[in-house]
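Hello,

I think I submitted the zinc ion job twice by accident. Can you confirm which output corresponds to this input? Input:
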Amino acid sequence: MNLKFLGGAREVGRSGVLLDTGTEKILMDYGIKIVSQAEGPLQEPKIPLKVNLNLDGLLLSHAHLDHSGFVPNLYHRGYRGPTYSTATTFDLSRILLKDSIKLANLRNQEKHFFSKDLKIMEENEYRVTYGQYFYIGRVGIGVYDAGHIPGSVTFHLDTGKKTIVYSGDIKLKDTELLKGLEPIRERTDVLMMESTYGEREHPDREKQERELVGDIKATLENNGVALLPSFAVGRAQEILLILEKFGLINKYPVYLDGMSIDATKVILRYPELIRNPQALEKIFKTITKVHNNRQRDKIINEPSIVVTTSGMLNGGPIVHYLEKLYQNEKCSLILTGFQVPGSAGRTLLDTGKYITETDNFKVKCKIRFIDLSAHAGRNELFKYVRMIDPEKILVMHGDECEKFAGELREMGYDAYAPSIGEVVEI
Ligand SMILES: [Zn+2]
Ligand SMILES: [Zn+2]
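Support: Only one job matched these inputs. Its output is below.
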C-alpha cells in the first residue's frame, strides 16, 4: 500500500495525494498553485502531476483552489467516478472554478477544463456531512469538520490494514465565523498534515482584531478609504463579523465586492455550519454590494470600508481600486491572509510595489498586514499531532515542511516531508 504525492509536497499549492491500497485507488484533493505575474511574463497556474483516471473516488477536503482547482480536469479527461465532499464545498468550489475559467479566458491561458466539465463534475458529486461514514470499495471513510472554512473536511480512512488521516487545511481555535476542528478519536497510523504555519506562531487574535479596527478607524477619520483585499471564501465573512463586533457596520459605509458576495450567499445557505448565522445574515443585508466600476469609482470618493477580492491581489476588483488609489496616502491597504511567495500581495509586502502583467507602481497608501489566518498556528499544529498521536507523520502543504518534520522527529515521532512525485510505502 502506498501514497503518491502529486503536489502540495514541500510547497503550498496544488495539493494532491493518491492512495493505492493495491485494490482501491483514492485521490485526495487535486488543486492548482496560483502563480503571479510578478516575476515576468504571463504565468500559468502550476498544476499537480497527472493522475491515471483509473480511480475509485476522489475526496475533496475544501473549496480553496489549491485543493479543488484541477478536479474538473479529471472529468475533462474522461473520469466519470465520484467526488466526495460537503454540499457547501461543492457550492463554493463551483464559484471559484467558474471564475478560474473566466480568468484563463481573460489572460488567454491554456484551458485545462471548460464549463461543460463543471457540469459533469456536478453530476458526479457525492455530498457527505460531518459525522457520516461511507465506503469506497472496502475503505471506510469518516468525515470530520476541519475548522478551516465553511464545509472543510478532514478525512479518516480505514483500509482494513492501515488507518490514515488526510487533514486538509485545519484550524483548531474558534474564529468569529467558525468553530475550531472536531477532534478525531479513532486510531490513526498515518497522518498527512498541513504545515502552513509550521515555523511561525500567530500573534494574539484578539489583539490583531483590535489593530485591524484601529487601522480602519484611523484611515476613515483621516478621510481615506480602507481597502481590505480578502479571500472570497471565509475571510471576507470573518472580516464582516469583526467589523460588526466592534460596531463599525452601522457607523461607516461598508462595501462588499467581487466573488465574496456569491460566496457569502452560499455560506448563508448552510447556517448550521457557522457560529452566528443571524449576525452574518443581518450584516449581509445592511452593507452595500458593489457590482461594477462606475459604482467603485463613486464609493471611493468618500471615507469607506471596502472588502473585496482577491486576497493575494492577483486579480479581482482590488486591481481597479488600487489603480485608482495607489497614490493616495490617506488610504490604507490591509492584507489579512497568507501571501504565497510570488503572489502580487507578497511582492507588495516585500517591496512596496504592485507588480502584475499590466501594472507596476509604488503604492503610497499605508500598507498593513494583520494576521487573521484560518490555518492552525505552530503550537496548534503540535497540539494536533499530540491529539492524533499517529505512528507516522507525512508533512505537507507548507514552505518549510522538511524543517517541521525535523522538529517532529526530535520530539520522537516518525515524521517525513515527501517531495513531489515521491511514493511513500505505508
Ligand atoms: Zn484552504
Ligand atoms: Zn490550502
